[in-house]
Amino acid sequence: MTVHNLYIFDRNGICLHYSEWNRKKQAGISKEEEFKLMYGMLFSIRSFVSKMSPVDMKDGFLSFQTSKYKLHYYETPTGLKVVMNTDLGVGNIRDVLHQIYSYLYVDYVVKNPLCNLNETIQSELFRNKLDTFVRGLPFFSARAG
Amino acid sequence: SSELFTLTYGALVTQLCKDYENDEDVNKQLDKMGYNIGVRLVEDFLARSNVGRCHDFRETADVIAKVAFKMYLGITPSITNWSPAGDEFSLILENNPLVDFVELPDNHSSLIYSNLLCGVLRGALEMVQMAVDVKFVQDTLKGDGATEIRMKFIRRIEDNLPVGEE
């Protein structure tokens, strides 16, 4: 199993953070364009999922997978979005994405008054903690992919 | 204990009263500071409580009174005076921890001592897409029988696609 990369978006679609571990293929466009494309797709999926659902939903969009990878999505009521791509072997990781929100984003960004919200996260501390956390996940493996 | 907060807040209000000539400006500053706290506090609240999105204002009222006030101030205000439309209610604070050691002098009759709370509530709710009007309508510091915060739902803030997106 493996973790490919991670995006954190705010409620306005700004990419607050991007990290990459095992990504063999790049998008071939600039990162700014990639973030916009990613956010646009997520925005559309959210609206698609809520319109198409035949029953009332609690959580809405959770994940999708292709033949090669799986995209996991977690959104807080404040509109913060944590998006992680892994390989197909990874099951439901909602609690992991929630932990990234509550132990890392809230503790090292929200509680740091010098970190402006709504812009790219500059905090080295946050980056390091996040990297350590993801590398420590049971399904993180640098070899696989 | 929360005395540290109570006393720190008291010192803040005292300083603001020195810095600004009139109480209206102090009220405004307290509200503004509260707002800035609220927009961050809501993230801490959601991370710690794992409360999901509210579907109506009644649910919001319950979460504020029973979960949020409990978590941060150790009190549970009661919810009363619902408007018929369900878009307005009051929080009654039996004991407001912000005012534990306070006696308002006569020359500060228009000071809303705990106005920080209004800003906190407004800021936090704005982040979960609710524009809400929050104000004190009764205050024991001013001789009223109870402390009452009136909450009025104004509108839902829609999220929109960032500019330049199709």
Walk me through the structure.
The complex is a heterodimer of chains A (145) and B (166). Chain A is α+β, with helices and mostly antiparallel strands and 145 residues long. Chain A is 35% helix and 19% strand. Chain A contains 3 helices and 5 strands. Chain A has helices at 31-52, 94-110, 124-135; strands at residues 3-9, 15-20, 63-65, 70-75, 81-86. Chain A is globular and about 45 Å long. Chain B starts with a helix and ends in a 10-residue tail after the last strand. A 4-stranded antiparallel beta sheet of chain B has the order 1-2-4-3. Chain B is built from 4 helices and 4 strands. In chain B, helix 2 (23-49) crosses helix 4. The mean pLDDT of chain B is 91. With 166 residues, chain B is α+β, with helices and mostly antiparallel strands. Classes of the chains: A alpha+beta (145), B alpha+beta (166). The interface between A and B is medium-sized, with 23 and 22 residues.
Which H/E pattern describes the elements of chain B? HHHEEHEE
Give the mean pLDDT of chain A. 93
Low-confidence stretches of chain B: none
Work out the radius of gyration of chain B.
17 Å
Name the overall outline of chain A: globular
Organism (chain B): Varanus komodoensis
GO cellular component, one term (chain B): TRAPP complex
Subunit structure (chain B): Homodimer.
Family (chain B): Belongs to the TRAPP small subunits family. BET3 subfamily.
Features:
heterodimer, A: 145 residues, alpha+beta, 5 strands, B: 166 residues, 45% helix, globular
Question: Helix and strand layout, with pairings?
Answer:
The complex is a heterodimer of chains A (145) and B (166).
Chain A: E1 3-9, E2 15-20, H1 31-52, E3 63-65, E4 70-75, E5 81-86, H2 94-110, H3 124-135
Chain B: H1 3-19, H2 23-49, H3 57-73, E1 78-80, E2 88-93, H4 115-127, E3 130-138, E4 147-156
Antiparallel strand pairs in B: 1-2, 2-4, 3-4
Helix pairs in contact in B: 2-4
GO biological process, one term (chain B): Golgi vesicle transport
Main location (chain B): endoplasmic reticulum
Subunit structure (chain B): Homodimer.
